[in-house]
Amino acid sequence: MIRAQTSERMPSSVKPLELLSLSGRKQVPMIMQSEVAECGLASIAMISSYYGNKVNIASLRGHMIVGNQGMNLKQMMEASVKLGLTSRAIQCPMEDIKQLVLPCILHWELDHFVVLTGISKRGIHVNDPAVGKRILTLSEFSNSYTGIVLELSPSPSFKKKDQRVVIKISQMWEHITGLKRSLISLLLLSIVMQSAALLSPYYMQWVVDNVLMSNDKPLLIVLAIGFGGLSLIQIVVQAFRSWLIVRFSSAINIQMGANLFHHLIRLPMTYFEKRHIGDVVSRFSSINSIRELLTTGIVEAVIDGLMASVVLIMMYLYSPILTFIVFGAALLTFFIQLLFYFPNRRITEESIIADANENSSFLETFRGIQTIKLFSHETIRQNNWLNRYAEVINSDIRLGKLEIAEDSAINLIFSLEMTIVVYFGALVVMEGGLTVGMLLAFMAYKNQFTTSITKFIDKIFSFKLLALHLERLSDITLESRERSNETRVLPQVHSSSLKVENVSFRYSDNTEWVVKDLSFEVKPGECVAITGPSGCGKTTLMKLLLGLQTPTKGKIYVDGVDIQKLSLNDYRKHLGSVMQNDKLLSGTLSENLTMFDPDYDYEKMLKCCEQANVLDDIQSLPMGFNSLVGDMGSNLSGGQLQRIFLARALYKSPKLLFLDESTSHLDDTNEDIINQNVSKLNMTRILIAHRKETINSADRIIDLSHISPK
Asked: Which residues form the ABC transmembrane type-1 domain (predicted)?
């Protein structure tokens, strides 16, 4: 079965000018995948959007759920029907690819899908959902292409519409206090500054035309004092405005960051399981670009636009002919920036993706440093990271080349404009249309206009590029949080009953069942061991009971209450758990044992450590409970960690205790002591184990090997 998963690939070197599309030919939109297994979905979205039914990943997720293993060809064909597309899966040898109906989807490197968009003298063009647009040589293409193609085309029921779901900039400032007041303050201060700047050219004009011509020193002194005072006011206002921007920017940054992190940390566990950590960090960092434009970009765009308009009128009053020359040059720069915008956007997106891949590789390397050292793979891993880091640098180089070309074109226009304006300006002065002072004032206004209009155009395109960051943030903000507004509460009892009623679970409609029609009951205070071969769904069942996954079918009751009607945050306050991939957080042992409770009960912590048989181990450490630990840095053994995790779970005084291989690293003596201590506690226990000693400590056994999903 062909699966669609992301494999990390490095794109070929692409020259910036090769990305310019000047032919007017319809382009296949580049849609990047967000999850590690969404390349098939992203490929379908690209072709659907190409034909006019504009969709993105967010709009498709609602009715096309992709499992952790991705999509196969059959599932992709079924998904395309929902978008009004007909499909045809074929085998196509390399020599026949020119006969394919483009764009089409190619099976790639046995575990990935890409979109073939064109074939030219420059190479074979593909849209890779993992890394962006690529231009490949025949050899590079042959090394990755598997020979399997999915052709998609509009069916009679196909409808052109826009179904894309994206977050709007207005949604980012809805919960930010003081935004409008600060923006208005910045706007007023900016108007004062620019008003002073508008008067400054008159100083040169009056000095040249009035002072020098009449040798009027008293007037020169008055003008110097007046315009000097005006400059002083301008400097003071500018300093105050800069300080206000610092304060405003800090307030916006902390509020936006807090709001986004508040949402991110409350997303369901499945969100994090399907993404690389570097990509999540990269998407979260997009908030910085949005914050910068919110704090100064909006005000500066308004001021620069107004300033350019007012100065243009002032220039027109001096000389309409010279004004048309200046305005024509500004218009040319706008079209130059428009020409470079789309390749700039593509390369910027590629740079962001490359940076996310490099971050993921870096973080994964140090999280798995022990494995890397044991396999002597330092050099291999270094090369792996270096390839990704080189792509970040290459993206910066491509972007730099594009910016150099753009800046050179703009500088050429303004240089020619200056030459032409001075030439015609001199002619106008010689003909008596302007005085020398008026020409100097006009040139000063021209410089102001050029500065303002250039900044205004830059801001316009920056706001257009903001859509790129909003689209990346949408992957976080549009994701639904875990339920938290339910009002049902659990009864106040020491230990809880548990009932699983016809529960089934699978990751998507097209994947196999992990758990199928499972039913059992656990009485209050009872200890039940769940057994079965690896991969039979034991840990998945545990996640369902903990609310980390939601049953596809069936219900789970705790003390007679359906957990789907409970706030997960409140529900988990009654649960204790030790899972296989539990982590310590950066801090002291006491902070980790009490989960950073500022008012923790020291005696209770000691008792829980004693019950988990880890008290002596902790007290033998030089710093005892004040020993610093973290997710990577600690000298604790696997057995000590498991006992610390158990003590942490017991500190919650849970009604239900879930243990997933929680004693797998312990010797028999330690395990016996812990089992005896925990069995004396008045709480219901659900444990997963393979060791006979652990299984035999349970009151009852549920063997999942006898319940095989179908």
From this structure: 186-465
